[in-house]
């Protein structure tokens, strides 16, 4: 496939909330391969603040943003992202997506189809996948093989207070929608594709989730997740076990900003090379959306 030289990708940012302000906007503005060209958000004053702080222009409409950029980065709730990202792909714009990529499987599949039809690059901000510690752990797990099980625990108080505690979609979807994609993605990447949800239980008052999953090849894994526990710092534990013993993930390094910078490195390579395949592209987002849907169906 032909290689297309790209000096600086002009990116438009959709959203002006805490995640957009702290990660997306500064990351796009500071990365050597991208230029934050435009910001659009539901609240014009918020878009203007983010744009001003990062050397970009606030625009009045999504169509105006599309007319001035090569790519679009989204930092909005999944239900909003799905429709707008379809329009971006139809306009020939590369996309950086948040997780989950949509609110339903049908929406996710429609988005993936449009991305494929347009031939644009896509990446999903599965933050931990772009950190050195996780990449090293996964490389070791995969090269060793022989794992028959795994477990994940992610416990935080993020919905009790702090910058993300006022996010309606996070409260509506809870831990499954917010940290679920990250958790399921890592277990899936380590043990093989998740092929079924054997059990799902949620303690409603605490939004405490317990899952039992099956993976291609016969491995099983368990998940415990909650964002309403008064714990500080957040507890994040991942491990696999099998014929070679027990191997846990020591993921002490890396910040969301550093992970986003690595993502943008990969994004630039996808665009310049013409290769649209990546372990964290839109099709990964569809797979995770299907697992989330299977959890909800199992829960009944």
Which residue ranges are poorly predicted, with pLDDT under 50 across at least 5 consecutive positions?
1-6
Over all CA atoms, what is the radius of gyration? 19 Å
Determine the fraction of residues in helical runs and give it as a percent range. 40-55%
Overall tally of domains: 2
CATH level-4 homologous superfamily of the largest domain: NAD(P)-binding Rossmann-like Domain
Number of strands: 12
**Overall SS class:** alpha/beta
Tell me the β content: 15-25%
**How would you describe the oligomerization state of the chains in this entry?**
single chain
The DSSP helix count reads 10
CATH architecture call of the largest domain = 3-Layer(aba) Sandwich
Largest sheet: 6 strands, parallel
- Based on Cα principal axes, name the global outline: globular
Defining key terms:
alpha/beta, Rossmann fold, 6-stranded parallel β-sheet, globular, disordered N terminus, nucleotide binding, NAD(P)-bd_dom_sf, Gfo/Idh/MocA-like_OxRdtase_N, oxidoreductase activity
Give a verbal description of the structure:
One of its GO terms (molecular function) is oxidoreductase activity. Residues 9-121 form the Gfo/Idh/MocA-like oxidoreductase N-terminal domain. The longest helix has 18 residues, at 256-273. The chain is globular, with a radius of gyration of 19 Å. The chain is built from ten helices and twelve strands. The protein has a six-stranded parallel sheet with strand order 3-2-1-4-5-6, with helices on both faces. A six-stranded mixed sheet has the order 8-9-10-7-11-12. The chain has two domains: 9-127 and 257-280, NAD(P)-binding Rossmann-like Domain (Rossmann fold); 132-252, Dihydrodipicolinate Reductase, domain 2, CATH 3.30.360. It has helices at residues 18-30, 44-53, 62-66, 78-90, 105-118, 132-144, 168-178, 180-191, 256-273, 282-299; strands at 9-14, 34-40, 57-58, 71-74, 94-97, 122-124, 147-155, 194-203, 208-215, 220-226, 235-242, 245-248. Mean pLDDT is 95; it is low at 1-6.
């Amino acid at each position: 496939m032909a290689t297309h030289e790209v000096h600086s990708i002009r990116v438009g940012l959709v959203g002006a909330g805490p995640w957009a302000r702290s990660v997306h906007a500064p990351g796009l503005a500071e990365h050597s391969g991208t230029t934050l060209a435009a910001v659009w958000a539901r609240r014009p004053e918020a878009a203007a603040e983010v744009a001003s702080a990062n050397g970009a222009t606030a625009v009045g409409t999504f169509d105006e943003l599309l007319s001035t950029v090569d790519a679009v980065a989204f930092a909005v709730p999944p239900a909003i992202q799905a429709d707008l990202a379809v329009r971006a792909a139809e306009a020939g714009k590369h996309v950086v997506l948040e997780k989950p990529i949509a609110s339903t499987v049908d929406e996710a599949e429609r988005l993936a189809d449009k991305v494929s039809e347009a031939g644009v690059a896509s990446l999903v901000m599965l933050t931990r996948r772009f950190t050195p510690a996780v990449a090293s752990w996964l490389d070791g797990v995969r090269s060793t093989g022989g794992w028959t099980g795994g477990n994940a625990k992610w416990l935080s108080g993020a919905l009790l207070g702090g910058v993300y505690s006022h996010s309606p979609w996070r409260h509506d979807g809870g831990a499954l929608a917010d940290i679920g994609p990250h958790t399921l993605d890592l277990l899936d990447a380590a043990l093989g594709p998740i092929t079924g949800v054997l059990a799902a239980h949620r303690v409603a008052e605490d939004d405490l989730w317990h899952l039992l999953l099956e993976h291609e090849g016969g491995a099983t894994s368990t998940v415990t997740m909650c964002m309403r526990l008064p714990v500080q710092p957040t507890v994040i534990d991942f491990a696999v076990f099998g014929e070679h013993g027990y191997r846990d993930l020591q993921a002490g390094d890396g910040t969301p900003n550093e992970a986003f910078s690595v993502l943008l490195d990969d994004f630039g390579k996808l665009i310049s090379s013409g290769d649209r395949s990546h372990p964290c592209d839109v099709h990964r987002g569809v797979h995770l959306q299907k697992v989330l849907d299977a959890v909800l169906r199992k829960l009944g």
